Amino acid sequence: MSNGSITGNQTTGNGGGVLVEGGKFNMTGGTISGNTAAVDGGGIAVSGYNDQGTAKPNRGELNMSGGTISGNTANYEDMSTAGNTTAHHTCPGGGG
Known about the structure:
Elements: E1 5-7, E2 10-11, E3 18-20, E4 24-27, E5 31-33, E6 36-37, E7 44-46, E8 61-64, E9 68-74, E10 86-90
Parallel strand pairs: 1-5, 2-6, 3-7, 4-8, 5-9, 6-9, 9-10
């Protein structure tokens, strides 16, 4: 993703804006905002480990060097970012 926006989406599972599972998501620009997930990752959910902490064989990868992830909501854990980005999230069940 180098431009544009992913906004106003919702899911009863993971990844209100984007769900990365078994692939790569590269973000160099654009905005992911106003998305909601009932479980994890209001903005972006990246599949990587099962509940026992074991790496999944089809885990996803997020590479983010720019853009904005903000105003997304998840009930448990939401995407948080660092570096050359902006992140503001709401996580009533923890995480962040």
